[in-house]
Amino acid sequence: MVKIGVLGLQGAVREHVVALEQSGAETVIVKRHEQLNEIDGLVIPGGESTTMRRLIDKYDFMQPLKEFAAQEKPMFGTCAGLILLAKNIVGYDEPHIGVMDITVERNAFGRQKDSFEAELMISGVAEDYVGVFIRAPYVVEVGEQVEVLSKHNEKIVAVRQGPFLGCAFHPELTDDHRFAQYFVNMVKESK
Ligand code: GLN
């Protein structure tokens, strides 16, 4: 069985644990960077990327997270987690973890659409997946190595680059665990 961590500094942590366990993974909530050594893959949940970044720095997670990525261990960033994985963030000079060759824009769907649901086609995952978007970012540009998995209204909302997976919505907030299952399969294949 694979063991998948959920970064537990802030945000929607428990829901990811449930989705991953129901998809056949063992899980652990990661609150100390030493725990990264025990896991085969990591989910970075939604929440607030700036707050999460502060906590990443406060608890000395940045270097260990970059090393985890450098070992090509699978990482799945959802919403704020996607922002943390991006190499470029519109309006910011520096990225956070910065391992995915994408440019993201925060809160990009605008104030009118603070949160909404949309039916998505996600390549390799589902034809009829309901995505829950909450002050969501979207991806404005992708590098050559990045596979676009899903778009909503022409905006890129799910991407994969080798061991790194990201989406703008919250897959943990519905009972449809097919996207979690996709990540669990990625982790199994990488092991
Ligand atoms: N708007 C948040 C940010 O910029 C992300 C929202 C979310 O994770 N639901 O970090």
Automatic annotation (TrEMBL):
Keyword Lyase: yes
Keywords recorded for this protein, A-Z: Glutamine amidotransferase, Hydrolase, Lyase, Pyridoxal phosphate
Enzyme Commission identifier(s): 4.3.3.6, 3.5.1.2
GO CC annotation, single: glutaminase complex
UniProt keyword Lyase, yes or no: yes
Annotated active site: C79 (nucleophile), H170 (charge relay system), E172 (charge relay system)
Function (record text): Catalyzes the hydrolysis of glutamine to glutamate and ammonia as part of the biosynthesis of pyridoxal 5'-phosphate. The resulting ammonia molecule is channeled to the active site of PdxS.
UniProt xrefs under HAMAP family: PdxT
Family of this protein: Belongs to the glutaminase PdxT/SNO family.
Subunit structure comment from the entry: In the presence of PdxS, forms a dodecamer of heterodimers. Only shows activity in the heterodimer.
Protein known as: Pyridoxal 5'-phosphate synthase subunit PdxT
Organism: Bacillus mesophilus
Source organism phylogeny: Bacteria, Bacillati, Bacillota, Bacilli, Bacillales
